[in-house]
Amino acid sequence: MESIATNIEAIREEIYAACTEAGRNPAEVRLIAVSKTQPASLVREAFDTGQTVFGESYVQEFLEKHDDPLLEQLPVEWHFIGHLQSNKIRSIIGKVALIHGIDKLSTAEELSKRAVQQNLHVDYLLEVNTSGETSKYGMQPNEVLLSADLLSTLPNITLRGLMTIASPDRVRAQEEFRQLRTLLESLKHNAPDPSKLTELSMGMSGDFREAIHEGATMIRVGTAIFGWR
Length: 229
Hints:
Layout: H1 4-22, E1 30-34, H2 40-47, E2 53-56, H3 59-66, E3 77-80, H4 89-92, E4 98-102, H5 105-117, E5 122-127, H6 141-151, E6 157-163, H7 170-190, E7 199-201, H8 208-213, E8 218-221, H9 223-226
Parallel strand pairs: 1-2, 1-8, 2-3, 3-4, 4-5, 5-6, 6-7
Helix pairs in contact: 6-7
């Protein structure tokens, strides 16, 4: 088995190659190491290679890692990338740099409410169901556009972009990544401040190269770093 350091280096090389092919600057793509179900010791091992951004999907597991003695004093940048229920927002707000999985207007409203109560400012992404699969969370693309005006008025939270989990088929996945990029451009066209809409969180271990070709600014990679769980 390859070491975590070797795996991260290999992924960074692939990011560089994909960006070169797409005519993009590799600095435009951030690697989020998906550390869900992995112990704090392996997160620390990845951190020691220079990887500072980690994605968690389960609230209780995230809170345990956030407070783990191995990690709590380190400048880890935590992202919450899983489905987030409204009643769990209060547990993670103020502890994560970015929430990727806001999948309905009511959850954004609750996030705003909690942010106001705690005098915090929170950045978030909207999760979009680009594949149309009923098993996946996310707003429909037309819902995103219909909700955009209201979302822009919610206090103490800022929409920074969009996130999706694509179909397993890589050809379909690339089409869905393209759809997400087009949707973000549509949002920018009507946004009060388009400069805030900068992020496309898309692409995982099996399809991040296609996502980079379609404009991903964040890729979420777990298995290719830590191995199968």
